Amino acid sequence: MHVLPLIGGKVEEVKKHSHCLAFSSSGPQSHTYYISFDSFTEHLRWQRQAAKMVSQRISSVDLSCCSLEELPPNLFYSQDLTHLNLKQNFLSPSRGLSELQRFSKLRSLNLSNNHLGEFPEAVCDIPTLTEVNLSCNYLTCVPSAVGAMHNLQIFLLDGNSVRTLPPELGDLQQLGYLGLSFNQFGQLPPVLHRLVAMERLCMAGNNLSCLDLPRLRHVRAKQVDLRLNKIQTVVPEEAELLCHVTHLDLRDNQLQQLDASLFPRLEVLHCERNRLSSLSAGGALLKGLYASSNEISQLEVYPVPGNLTYMDVSRNRLESLPDWVCESKKLEVLDVSHNHICELPIGLFCSSSLRKLLLGHNWLRRLPERLERMQIEVLDLQHNQLLELPSNLFLKADSLRCLNASANKLESLPPSSLSEESQSILQELYLTNNRLTEKCVPLLTGHTHLRVLHLAYNHLQTFPASKMAKLEQLEEVDLSGNQLKAVPTTILSCRRMHTLVAHSNCIQVFPEVMQLMEMKCVDLSCNELSEITLPENLPPKLQELDLTGNPRLSLDHKTLELLNNIRCFRIDQSPASFSVSEGPGAPAVWSHGYTEASGVKNKLCVAALSVNNFRESREALYGVFDGDRNVEVPYLLQCTMGDVLAEELHKTKSEEDYMTNTFLVMQRKLGTAGQKLGGSAALCHIKHDPMDPGGCFTLTAANVGKCQAILCRDGKPLPLSVIHNVGVAEEYQRVRQHKAIVTEDNKVNGVTDSTRIMGYSFLYPSVIPRPHVQTVALTPQDEFFILGSRGLWDSVSPGEAVEAVRNVPDALAAAKKLCTLAQGYGCTDSLSAVVVQLNVSEDCCCCCCQPPSPGPRALRPAPQRGDPRAARPHATAAADALPMPSSCSEISSEVSASEMSSEVGSTASDDPPQGGLLHEPHPGGGASGGAESGRGLPAVGAALLRAARRLPGRVVPPAALQRSLRKRAGQRGRGAHRWRLLQRQPRGGGGGHPLPARPASGPGLPAAPPPPPPRPRRGAEPGAAASRTGGWAGGGAVPPQGRAGQGEGTAAETPPPWAGAGERLGGPAREEPQPDRGGGRRPPKSKGATSPPRPSPTPTTSSSSRQSWRRR
Length: 1112
What we know:
Layout: E1 10-13, E2 20-24, E3 32-36, H1 40-55, E4 60-62, E5 83-85, E6 108-110, E7 131-133, E8 154-156, E9 177-179, E10 200-202, E11 210-212, H2 213-216, E12 223-225, E13 233-235, E14 247-249, E15 257-259, E16 268-270, E17 278-282, E18 288-290, E19 298-302, E20 310-312, E21 333-335, E22 356-358, E23 378-380, H3 393-396, E24 402-404, E25 428-430, E26 452-454, H4 465-468, E27 476-478, E28 499-501, E29 521-523, E30 544-546, H5 557-563, E31 568-570, E32 588-597, E33 606-611, E34 620-626, H6 632-649, H7 655-669, H8 673-676, E35 678-688, E36 697-704, E37 708-713, E38 716-719, E39 722-723, H9 729-737, E40 758-759, E41 772-777, E42 782-788, H10 790-795, H11 798-805, H12 811-824, E43 831-838, E44 860-861, H13 897-904, E45 931-935, H14 939-950, H15 958-968, H16 972-982
Parallel strand pairs: 4-5, 5-6, 6-7, 7-8, 8-9, 9-10, 10-12, 11-13, 12-14, 14-16, 15-17, 16-18, 17-19, 18-20, 20-21, 21-22, 22-23, 23-24, 24-25, 25-26, 26-27, 27-28, 28-29, 29-30, 30-31, 39-44
Antiparallel strand pairs: 1-2, 2-3, 32-43, 32-45, 33-34, 34-35, 35-36, 35-40, 36-41, 37-38, 37-42, 42-43
Helix pairs in contact: 6-7, 6-13, 14-15
């Protein structure tokens, strides 16, 4: 095939031949092609099209990210170029850049990210240039020849190592924007005062320690950006001399006090993330005030800011709002959340301009009763101490569209109108976590435009059917965590309903929601359903149905066939399929539950991992992965990270080493999926040394990004994770060393706000995957730990999360509650939560050193060097890694996990497995939202197993020894388990094994009923496999030997650039056989794809015990 560039060439008709055209290319070595057409019509069409092409002139060329080492010759065919983009290549000043002078009309030139090393002086010989970008090129100086570019208007030198500017730069009389951010300037360059046309000066990320206003007065720039410096003091100057500054950005410095009234014409002030205790500003022309994340207790603006439209003073220490706030006639958005405000000004709700008012996370007990001309559209009152809302709130706030009053103490609601006709346009109402009863429901019927209603975790016992019928516009309803026994049948009046969430109730009758054609998601987990009635055809848009945690629910074969058509169908397995290979009397050590929730557009960008019997020993592995807005990375981590960890455990026993290597190897396994996409990850590994009779269980946590884990110890949150971002001094210095740019939203190169995260390999070495690792020894005071995605911790504080689930007996119900609370507080991101309940006995900790007690702080930024708060923090800057997840979300039974690796990562290797993650799932866990429990070996069995390993002669295989022990153990353990299942709390969930309740203090507690007498086993060998929903019981019970289906291998990947940087990447990647993880959700496989058959774990396993009630 020949490609002929026609632009600038010519097309001619060949008269000697019929229907023939001659096409000639441009350039010094032009070629001519003669083409004959079958008809005159085709001939004419080609001639007209070609004539248009040859008449065009190239004015803009983009050759960015093309790995160019020199300029291509074809680039010079057109001398009419005006815009040339050559960023992110490998060009050098000595190889062809001097040829750029041939473009006599060039106006814009982008040479950023080429690692030039020295300034290309040939650029100075192009007099037509108006814009030059030389950012991130390791430049150390600017030559005096720059003064020859008299037409230059924009000059960007960000991300270099420049310390001084030549005096000749002052000759650029048309220069309006000078970018000097992230260089090595210690003060404002003197030459700046000669740039008379400059309007914008950017010097973020330099080494300025003092804001010298006398020097700044000579700089005529209107917009001054000095964020991310080290400014601690301000040298004052007379206000009249600073009239030219209209926009001042002092974010992320070290200021303790700021008097911005020295800038009399200031319009926008940014001073977030300093240490300000007091702030003063002039209000004559002020339009925007941004001062969040400080310690401000005193705020003064004079005169009254009549032009102020946006004010953000959230996360400070304000105890009251100044009166001038009510006098700002143009204020539209006011954010004073996360302060200490106890009372609001009387006239705050009388503003005719205020549209959005955020008052959450304060100490408000009541709101002003005076409501006049109120135009507020969004009102956030969550996390206060309100007992009631103003009685005339809905009568006066006729523009209110969204109200969030969650996490208060509300017992009643104000009426929507005084008559049957209501003028309310309220569309979203969030009342989660209050004290409302069914008496409040009739007051909601006046909001006829209501689309979203959250009443989770209140005291509702019924929802009147007649009232539900009047809310015809409802689309999303959350009634979870109440005492409802039924959902009213009048829900059929809500024809637009697409989401019904009613988990953790006492619902016994399946609602008739399947007759609503718009229904997409139904969550009725953790209820008391015994049967369901379905129409002949399910709603065509139904994507999710969760019925886990309904132990009495039984479905016939026809119903199961119908429900298998749902993309994500979750249900517990029948008790008859429970494993019979559990050790009798073995105490439950851990029990887990998990859940996931889609974000906007029903896109699930999170995944979870749960392996209760990791490596067929007394270990467990849990993880949460968050891709922010991408699905590929979290699911690849979910399917692969567990196997990588299993392999690393064979190589080293050091917690820091094997966890760090797991992340680094996983980074390489992400392959092409991790080049421009990324995701957060948090792993928790429970381990017990079988060779140490008195050893304790240890919990090792590792994380990158914003997925985090916390441990509840004595009712207090103990952080196991840290957040790495540019707000951490060590992380910021590392990013600076690699000449990366931090944009105004605190993102590295404008991509991610995490400096350590999986994927985003194109940002290496500024962004790395090396995790923070922390190990603690588990004690009887450790009650549970929580892993959560970014959206969970952005909405729910660690302290609130611990208090919310501490008294929830079931792990599944606890995980469900966390996600529901986050959604009720306004979170719209994808959510994932894993709750692992612990029951560590004293004898497991007799030889352990007491771990550090939890500090008063919860999730925090990375500790500084020498910080004693972390038990064993390991957070250093180094290479990246690829985590391999095994999720508790639903993984398709038609596609193996290794196939998932090859489809998403496209570089996973096909080396043979190393073992370690072959296990059979526990029967009781639900799918996404299942609960599972862990069981330890009997003490005698563990001792015999250790003794057998020391014998010099015939060594008893561990699995065979354990099966023998279990066979001699009798039936007592099995009967006790079934008795516990029947005694589970009515609102517990997940079909798992709830841990024994902790003893409560106080008189009058009823004694626990004795266990039932042993019953014989029926039709199962001690080791028969159970259902594939969820992992095997953890804490010591070893499952039967078996292996899941292993996908086909894929081609070996190309090592990433960091592979040779001194970091251990574990050699060639190996694809492990994937365990039968219960309930993992994954993207659907392409049509016609199949997976290899899954062999039975033992010859005695029946096919029914392996059946899954979920369609992939």
